[in-house]
Amino acid sequence: xxxxxxxxxxxxxxxxxxxxxxxxxxxxxxxxxxxxxxxxxxxxxxxxxxxxxxxxxxxxxxxxxxxxxxxxxxxxxxxxxxxxxxxxxxxxxxxxxxxxxxxxxxxxxxxxxxxx
Length: 116
Fold this sequence. Notes:
Blueprint lengths: L2 E5 L2 E3 L5 E8 L8 E6 L5 E7 L6 E3 L7 E6 L4 E6 L8 E9 L2 E4 L3 E5 L2
Parallel strand pairs: 2-11
Antiparallel strand pairs: 1-3, 3-8, 4-5, 4-9, 5-6, 7-8, 9-10, 9-11
């Protein structure tokens, strides 16, 4: 059974930083791209970032480029999202995502609130 468990969210002031983590299990982690997506209050899902199976290729939404960094540790089945220079518009629930066996899997999400 595929399981994704996000952690690391919280309340942070504008300009601050957070590091999100996602623990993955139930599939061959080293074979799959991993993504982060987010959902702001009252809005739909927004793709944030993705990383390939080996970790050597990453991509970002324009809204976070230059501020967020995705990474993974294949020895630990973990994926991370380092978020710097946070803005109020980054407030959202952040989800880890993987596409396995023709379906998407999500964790329970972790809340990030950027506010003074």
